[in-house]
Design goal:
This protein has about 150 residues and is of the alpha+beta class. The protein contains 1 helix and 13 strands, in the order αβββββββββββββ. The two termini are about 25 Å apart.
């Protein structure tokens, strides 16, 4: 049993490393813009940590930090977006956009257990229906990238 858990944990780490190494090669960054015009950039190479709880979005990475109410976020972008296949993450409603129609998006527990599957619709969006999942960390995986979310 411990061997299976270790293999799953290694598989999750490998998925994360593959996604992060591809993004680092393109010098990708995450950009958050608030409705009041504040712009915060986080190089993906600095592995920013995103938390969302009680409508508060917090991002910490390197020497940068932002804490803002989710409804005050104007945009949440990854640049260059073609490295991840995701153009935008809408915090309200957990929506990904910019994916090709039919693109699969899977959600895994941190232990590697598959818990949900979605496909991008004709509007190039995926709504992650994860309200029934327990609070904790999850891995969201697209064909081009993986990232960790905290519910």
């Amino acid at each position: 049993m411990k061997k299976i858990l270790l293999i799953r944990a290694l598989a999750v780490v490998a998925m994360l490393l593959l996604g992060v190494s591809a993004v680092r090669a393109a010098e990708a960054r995450m950009i958050i813009t608030t409705k009041s015009g504040v712009v915060a950039e986080f190089p993906i190479a600095e592995t920013p940590v995103i938390t969302y709880q009680n409508n508060l979005l917090e991002v910490k990475g390197g020497d940068r930090e932002i804490s803002v109410q989710a409804d005050e976020v104007s945009s949440f972008d990854f640049v260059p977006s073609e490295t991840s296949g995701v153009d935008e993450i809408n915090v309200e409603g957990s929506k990904l956009s910019g994916l090709q129609p039919g693109t699969p998006v899977d959600v895994y527990t941190i232990e590697g257990q598959h818990v949900a599957s979605f496909k991008a619709d004709d509007n190039q969006t995926v709504k992650l229906e994860i309200s029934d999942l327990a609070p904790g960390y999850y891995i969201v995986r697209t064909p081009n990238n993986s990232f960790k979310i905290k519910k």
